[in-house]
Write the structure tokens for this entry.
Amino acid sequence: MQAEAIEYIRFGVISPDSIKKVSVAKLTVPDTYNEDGYPIDGGLLDQRLGVIDPGLVCKTCGARAKTCPGHFGHIELVRPVVHSEFAKTIYMILQATCLECHRILMDDERIEEMRKSLAEESESEEAQHGPQQKRIRNVKKCPHCEAPTAKIKLSSPTYFTADERRMKPDEIRDILAKISSDDLRLINIDPTITRPEWMVLSYLLAPPSSVRPSITLESGERSEDDLTHKLVDIMRINQRLDQNINAGAPQIIIDDLWELLQYHVTAYFNNETSGIPPARHRSGRALKTLAQRLKGKEGRFRYNLSGKRVNYSARTVISVDPYINIDEVGVPQEIAEKLTVPFYVTTWNLEYAKDLLSRTSYPMVLNIISRDGKRKRIIDTNKDEVLKGVVAGDILEKQLVDGDMVLFNRQPSLHRISIMAHKAKVLPGKTFRINYCTTAPYNADFDGDEMNLHVPQTLEAQAEARYLMLVPYQIFSPRDGSAIITNSEDGITGMYNLTKETTYLTNAEASYLLGICGIYELPKQGKAGMYSGRDVFSMILPKGLGYEQQTAHGPFRIKNGRLAEGLITKETYGRDNGLFVKIAMDYGYEELKDFIYISSKLADAYVTLCGTTVGVKEYSIDKKLEDERSIIITETFSKVSKLIDDYRNKKLEPLIGYTLKESLERIIISELNAARSHAGDVLARHEDETNSAVEMAKSGSRGSILNLEQMSMFLGQQATLSGGRIKRGYYSNRLLPHIAPNNIGPAARGFIVTSYYSGLSPVDLFMHAVGSRGSEVYKALLTGRSGYLYRRLSNALQDYYVRDDKSVRDVNNNIIQTVYGGDTISPIYTQFAKLSKE
Amino acid sequence: MNEKKREAISEFDVHSGEPVGIIAAQSIGEPGTQMILRTFHYAGIEATIATSGLPRIVELVDARKRPATPITYVYLDSEARKSLEKAESVAKRINEVRMNGLVRRAIENFSKGTVKLILDMQAAEAVELTAAQIAQKLAKATGYEASVEGGSILIRLHTNNMKEIRSASVRLMKKVIQGIEGAGKAIIQQDKSGTFYIIAAGSNVSEIIKLDGVDKSRLYTNDVFAMYNLFGIEAARNTLVNELKKTLKEQKINVDERHLAVVADAMTYAGDIKGIGRHGLSGQKISVFAKAAYEETVKHLVNAATFGEIDHMRGVTENILVGKQIPLGTGSVKLAIKRSGSKKVESEKKQDKPQ
């Protein structure tokens, strides 16, 4: 439900008259409570400003602490002071006007010109939005009264001089008051909203006590808010200044006090104003005054207004459950009993509502919200009474049950699929359960991650969750249209093994596997009464599906719902596959979701059945590979040392555009990288799929040949932050004292010839640590930068949306793109569009 | 199995109301953080950290006037692209040679008022210049008297003022002797089909395009502003898309081009190039609240008060601040009711009529 719509909000400077009008009390006593712990009349927590103690009644509105909104008071300053935040504006205005005749320092011709251009601007919408006045400066003589202009200076924060003579705030105020309204309009100031003399304060608005509540400590001692402290300071000085003036104290003393008053007021508005020492608390902590309350990450705007706290939410640790569907979320019983979903009572469901109300165990009604908006907790003693009184229009808050729509979220919420709608599934235990196929969009794992759950409270919100945010609709990423919700790792291995041509299953095995998938029929029998793995897999494919794809493992073909040829790998069943697109396009998201779920169960069952593991065995290499490894290393070393010799004899051919030295370095690096990729090739050729690490790499389920190679062959070149070889560390350009001076060979510059399997030598370990440290530093450096980039991007682009004519506009109706993306096609559907054309 | 809804998907358009701006920002911002986290898994190996990557994206999106590494791709016309000789002659006219690249040492004589430039003959040879040629070009460019003395050039300044001599010698060293100022070092490259083209480490395309032998229709630089100044705003927009795409591709991050286009169009739709952020798009927003909630809160509020600004509460931030629905997505839809008997259609809110 929406409150009264705000049409617009206009900003302005408050006038002294307005201050007096909104103020309910003139504050005169620079103190808060008296000895009895009672608010002092005319003090800073005067009861007319609203009450914060539970027992008291507000003297202005008669309401109690919880309902009284608070009321403003005011302080009369005996001498005016400059509002420090407006000092720059005052400076600008003083420079632009004549101190004698108070006219603007523009000749009539220019005034006319400005008027015209302002009139034009005000017709277009942009006009109201911001200061467009050009500064008027360095005018020698007033064009109206011919008087020479004074040189105005502002030394921050609030000290003004005219021709080296101090301008006191009262003088400034009087000058500003004499500027005509017409002249103000010329510098884009609307005199009906903002008069410049209001920027010099004679009255100070004191915020209600509810804005600066005092807290009672356990010891019974009262602790005041920072704002109250500052206001006390202001009033004390104000009082002393008053006394001194009345007593006829010397001007110096008065001026000193005046300046002190100015300081306190400045600190009250912004305690980080440059040029003043920040006001401190007794403990030495700088006070948080008005500006500090608003700005920054922890300020009112970003902390409380852009981000809000909510009810109807829960948070706990997450854990895996491969036996719940990907659009479900397991909710602990304990949480389901606390969270509620509204049930709207109508004349048609009144009987059902009464049944609900009369329940005494788990799915029961916790609260009832009657039509006047009052919420009542249902307890044993009032149950009968409520049951009698329930009528259409009441809202029952009933406990969360299976199938309720909930939003599930993991922070940081970097993209929109960090929040998705799931169907609740109430389970025993204390953790949220999710299917592991949905971890990718959340970037979640189960090492202690916690996630949040929200229950949408209106029918509109529930409908949006169900039809826009539900997991099946998020399978394809809006970033590039790839499938982000998919099976992975062991799941891929399972399907890979199952769909191998050589895989045949016994009747018992096939029945077991399909039974897990909820399929109670068997495929056609193959040879010797066995069932081929492909046929078993085909049972979970949608009926009549047809799909073809070329892969690195040869063609992949599904004909009429049967896997005819090819293997399930990451290529055919993973992020960038077309299979999902085809299923979604022909059968819809709901079918695709179930396919992902059932295939993940099948894969898990099979991989559990036949087992897969990696151990030290996978990374040990035999004599033959060991020899190959040594050959690669010795060959590379001799090649590099020849390059170095050539370089020293000036026989090296420099690369175009590089000096000889740079060329040498580049050639060496490429030579060393070639050695590593060569070793990878050798390894890949030598090892077959009896090595399950190789199998994993080939099916794309986890790891790569590179990982394998680093573990069993050699680690290769370690890089520095700048991407080059490591070259410093010890003096005279050596890395370590173990390395001879002027050795620029592979081993001297961070090329590691040992593997994780063989173990690293101390020198190698050091080199490796250098590389690792580098990437850690880099990571830390870039996380901050990328977070800021993201914040800026989303802030700049947040107002853009697609209109019904498929143009991209901002909320002010400016056209950013006439046709979204040039073809109106959504990034989610790019693969769909491609496939449908074929 | 229970009956499933089978809904074939045949509509590939973006949905009306879709907040494509936010989605574009997320598509670029999210992998930005992921890309970093992934390096963790490969401890140290070949983390080839080039000037590209995130710093490059920041540079593009900020609309920096000068990129850290400007590069110009000069393709050649049908004749020059086939002959190394002709390509070399174009490259020579582009290749920026400054005095300080040719001089080994400059000796200032304050009593005589001369500057003696000892030439690095090897460097001079590399750009095919003799001492006499250098002296002549220098004299022409500066108006000073220059004479050759063996392997060096003597400049007579006719003054004894130390400050003048020093500043003259500094100026001398910066003089461009050959090639195009701001074009940088030019290198000839050959592609797979054997055609020659030139890569220059600068971005003075407005001068390079004037040269003979250059294929003017294909001249390209990664400097967005240089492209803007020479070819106009559409070219700048396309350059932005190209460069963002290239940078992300290098990082093996797949982002749909449409997202990059939204960013590029947002930066250029007004006819000039605006950066993202405080001094660009975000800072020039109309809404006071949107600006205050972003950065420099106090400054924006004070300005708004001074100039009596009005916030029409149309944007996303403003509406979130006051707890209203945002005007995008399902929030962009309004209801209109025609009551029975009434001829008028009443719309939910009259606010939805931007002029």
Summary: Chain A is about 35% helix and 15% strand. Chain A has six domains: 24-71+207-302, 83-198, 313-474, 490-610, 616-777, 801-837.
